[in-house]
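Need the bound structure for adenosine-5'-diphosphate, inputs here:
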Amino acid sequence: MNNLLHSIRFRLTLWYASVLALVLVLFAASVYVFVVRSLQTNIDQALQGYGRQVTQVAGRTVQGGHLNVNHISMPPGVRREPLAVVIMNVEGKALRVQPGHAGPPYQVLRIAIRSGKQSCTTLQATGIGMRHEPIRVCTTLEYRHGRRVGGVAVAESLVGVNRALERLRLALILGIPFALILAGWGGWLLAGRALEPVERIARLARSISSSDLSRRIDLRRQDELGRLADTFDAMIERLERSFAEQRQLTADVSHELRSPLAIIEAQTTLALRRSRTDEEYRHILASVQEEVERMSCMVAQLLSLARAEAGEEPVAMEPLDLLSLSRAVVDALEPVARERGVALDVNGDAVLLLGDSARLRQAVLNLVQNALQFTPEGGRVAVTAGCRGRQAVLQVRDTGCGIAAEHIPGIFQRFYRVDPARSRSTGNSGLGLTIVRWIVEAHGGEIEVDSQVGGGSTFTILLPMTHQPAPA
Ligand code: ADP
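Answer from helper R.:
Posting the output first, comments after.
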């Protein structure tokens, strides 16, 4: 019962019925007042019309400034005689009273003649035809040459009209609750139908767990509930994707850690099997250290990415020159390039912008390191800084092995390697480009790749430029 009282369906129906009740009561009251007024107007017009006709007939017999009437003849065209008619001269002498004891109309006419104001009024009459009933009396005054000569009061019983009004009242009083019950029942059914999808959404939400996010509401409606269901479906889809990504990440990290751990385990087992020379121990420890460094580098990169995704890695915005920053990276990697037999150079114009120099240096470093790694001896890696419209452009171009088109969408994903065996052997984590993309996006920029197998690759970073280089 408590549940029912708190249900939207019940409250909707209650609201609907309350508003309807108010509307019906207002409507019934207006109809009643309108009917009463129009009936009264009709009666008043009929009585005044009758009075005017009588005064016209009576007026013909004005003698010496007075009405002189001996009888009241029924005006032509009148189907039914009124309840009472009184004709009076200006001195208040009743010239004709029909029926004989029409006291109330008589009194009303006396007052009207004295005050000179004709009007219509409702009275409780006693004494007309020995009856006790509500009557309507209208007075009409008669003038001759601008002088009041007398008047006529015409009365009609309101019994019939009041009975009709009583029936109307009864019909309205009984009709409103009946209409309300009917409308409330209809409202209850309609609210139930309208809210049925909400119940479906609630059922589905209850049945969804983290292990089964494949279900959808799929309401296929264009209305508000359809939009709610679509939003809900989109939210579940995002959740499903993020759970899948989480599972994938856990699997990838475990996979990545497995080989260095296996190497460490193998090396230590080998070292402990028998006693070794100092040289052998040093060799084994150096190999273990290398694996540990690789793992801690990977963990640090992962941590940094996780913080970045959680919005916890602040990006400083300081003025910097992209060309100088690239030159510093090239200088640092020059020995590596020389060792690999790859020409490495940097050129372009000074490009001033606001950014985080440490992170942008990291991005350029990752790109140049990749380029050096995938470019064979005798090849060339060129770093260029410049502007394109209102954007700063940094390009790292190499003459290396290139990337097949089907791999390009994947290379920015975590742990993605075009050639896993080769990359692992060189100690790369598969996180380099993921970090580059995050850094570029954190600066409001974007990264593009243009590559052909055997034809080299070009990585282009586009950054919004806030400072134009000063003219030379
Ligand atoms: P990693 O640190 O293992 O190099 P990255 O995220 O930096 O990982 O790169 C992902 C993959 O993209 C690499 O394994 C490599 O196959 C490919 N790749 C990146 N840069 C280049 C490049 N300049 N030339 C060819 N392949 C590249």
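Comments: The pocket of adenosine-5'-diphosphate is lined by residues 366, 370-371, 374, 398, 400-401, 403, 411, 416-419, 423, 428-434, 457 (CB under 6 Å). The CA atoms of residues 27 and 327 lie 86 Å apart.
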